[in-house]
Design goal:
Layout (H helix, E strand, L loop, with lengths): L15 H13 L10 H6 L13 E6 L2 E6 L3 H5 L1 H5 L6 H9 L4 H11 L2 E4 L9 E7 L11 E4 L5 H11 L3 E7 L11 H8 L3 E5 L4 H12 L3 E4 L3 H5 L5 H7 L4 E6 L11 H7 L3 E4 L2 E4 L5 H19 L2 E7 H7 L7 E3 L13 E3 L1
Parallel strand pairs: 5-6, 5-8, 6-7, 8-9, 9-12
Antiparallel strand pairs: 1-2, 2-3, 4-12, 10-11, 13-14
Length: about 350
């Protein structure tokens, strides 16, 4: 099934830059970088829906002066619609579309961000860096990654994919889940969760207790690489500070994956982050989603490559990775390429890629 385009229309291409960059990054890990875009869709049997995301939780809607992507993925999101757009009816998506259509795109996104909703304006992140590296200290270059430990605190797709690629490269990866809030990917196909975590050691901790946070601290102090995908305040609320861990532990690279970067306290998911970066396709009726939550797998692959680069260069690093920034960097150069996804997991059988 082709993943980009309207269900009742022709297949639409994706940027040649996206294909070129992911091909190059994928070769570094002996995977088909473009095939990663279709893994979830293949396992969950998702199809293209044009201005509705493949997963169905995000929609592209016209405002008075542009387009916005609205993600309603969590039950609590619907409870916030009244505060956001004064919506109280029984057909929320119809009312959201009507309300957004009477407002400016910036007003819609700014109010949503204040409430913690994942809403973005098309192209708002153009020029946003994919990664902002900050040197935290000195350390010799790493020659053999097989002796390294990675602690993966992330969930869903981008961070777990980064961790899985590092595990495939030979690192020991420990995935930490909260017993109170397990990885949201567990709510989807089991095969996809397994694909993202098959080579990791799984550890479950109750992070609301002192014993749980103490155990987490000990794991972080022993890690050469940390992957996390929460807003900065989340760890601070548990009394864990990355600068302290980096200064007193073994950390060489701390990867922080967020929607718009650590300086922006905004929620984002793969589809709405891609829209923010301008990574969409379009036809005469307007923009449509590019593949399935494309910012997630693109960011996971980009982050994994950045980890290996910084390990090889030496030093201790914070890598501030932005989903929207990664998408923005892959959005240009429209020499369209179409991507076919087979029904099998791409790393088990890579899909064909056809030039149009």
């Amino acid at each position: 099934m082709w993943l980009t385009g309207r269900p009742d229309g022709p297949t639409l291409g994706v940027p040649a830059r996206l294909v070129r960059e992911l091909d190059g990054l994928g070769r570094r890990f002996d995977v088909d970088g473009v095939a990663l875009l279709g893994e979830r869709a293949a396992l969950a049997r998702l199809e293209r829906h044009g201005d509705v995301s493949c997963g169905g939780a995000t929609r592209l809607l016209p405002a008075t002066d542009g387009w916005v992507a609205v993600s309603l993925t969590r039950e609590d999101d619907f409870a916030l619609l009244e505060a956001w757009l004064d919506i109280t009816g029984d057909d929320p998506w119809v009312e959201v579309a009507q309300a957004v259509g009477t407002r400016r795109a910036d007003d819609v996104t700014e109010t949503a961000a204040e409430l913690g909703l994942a809403v973005s304006r098309l192209g708002e992140a153009t020029g946003l860096p994919a990664i902002i590296p900050t040197r935290l200290g000195d350390a010799p270059p790493t020659r053999d990654v097989r002796a390294l430990r990675v602690v993966d605190l992330s969930s869903l797709w981008a961070g777990p994919l980064c961790g899985q690629l590092l595990a495939d490269a030979g690192m020991e990866v420990v995935k930490v889940e909260s017993t109170r809030r397990p990885d949201g990917a567990r709510r989807g196909p089991k095969a996809f969760f397994d694909l993202m975590n098959v080579a990791k050691r799984l550890v479950s901790l109750d992070l609301t207790t002192r014993d749980g946070t103490s155990a987490l601290r000990e794991l972080l102090l022993s890690a050469d690489v940390v992957i996390e995908a929460s807003r900065p305040r989340a760890l601070r609320q548990m009394g864990i500070d990355l600068h302290e861990i980096a200064a007193t532990g073994d950390t060489k690279v701390w990867v922080s994956i967020t929607g718009f970067g650590r300086a922006h306290n905004r929620v984002a998911f793969g589809d709405d982050a891609a829209v923010a970066g301008g990574l969409v396709a379009s036809d005469a009726r307007g923009p449509v989603f590019c593949a399935d939550a494309v910012a997630d797998p693109a960011t996971g692959l980009t982050a994994a490559a950045a980890v290996t680069d910084h390990l090889a260069s030496g030093g201790r690093w914070l890598l501030d990775v932005s989903l929207a920034g990664v998408a923005a960097g892959l959005a240009g150069d429209w020499d369209p390429v179409t991507v076919e996804v087979t029904a099998a997991p791409p790393r088990a059988r890579a899909p064909r890629r056809l030039l149009s």
